[in-house]
Amino acid sequence: MRQTRYKEKSHKKGIILTLVTILVLIILCIVFFFPINNTIRNISGGNDTASDKLVKDELVKKVESTRNGDLQHDKKVSEVSEKLKNTKMSDIMKSAGNQSKAAKTLNENTTLSSSDSKKVAKEVFSNSKYAGLRKSVGDGNWYSAYNQYRSLSNDGSITELKNSISK
Predict the structure, then answer these.
(1) Is 126 helix (H, G, I), strand (E, B) or coil?
(2) The dihedral of CA 108, 155, 165, 75: what is its sign?
(3) Whole-angstrom Cα distance, residue 91 to residue 48?
(4) At what angle do helices 2-31 and 33-43 cross, to 10 degrees?
(5) If you average pLDDT over residues 152-158, what whole number do you get?
(6) Residue 100: its pLDDT value, please?
(7) Domain boundaries in the chain?
(8) Sign of the CA dihedral running 130, 39, 56, 26
(9) Compositional bias of type Polar residues: which residue ranges (predicted)?
(10) Is there a contact between 59 and 65 (Cβ–Cβ < 8 Å)?
(11) What's the CA gap between 87 and 154, in Å, rounded?
């Protein structure tokens, strides 16, 4: 009788210890997700990770959603989407910390001219309201970058930036 009770207690302790360990591991993975993802990217030589591919797919969907039926516009959208798919996220991250690299990346991966790309990069690097977005992208923190982008969209900054290119 006494031995049975001891086995039940030790079995419960083992289950509780296992559950606590699993919970701690899950919390650590959530907290350290972006640093782990960045480490995997660095180890693989700058190649995109699975989460990078997911983020990039969402970016492509966002670009594709701008199609409007105009053949010229839709052709440009397809071109930009293809270029974005072929650009490494590590290159995009590096561009977030260097104005000339950002201008070059914009020029190579969008339909913007060289002068427009430089103009956009200059605005994004000189205006402090884009600093949070640049930092998030540079750190590879895609969740924060999305929130920054959404905030800039809501306050009209993104529209203002787009309109400045058109002029």
Answers:
(1) helix
(2) positive
(3) 10
(4) 70
(5) 91
(6) 94
(7) 48-166
(8) negative
(9) 96-114
(10) no
(11) 27
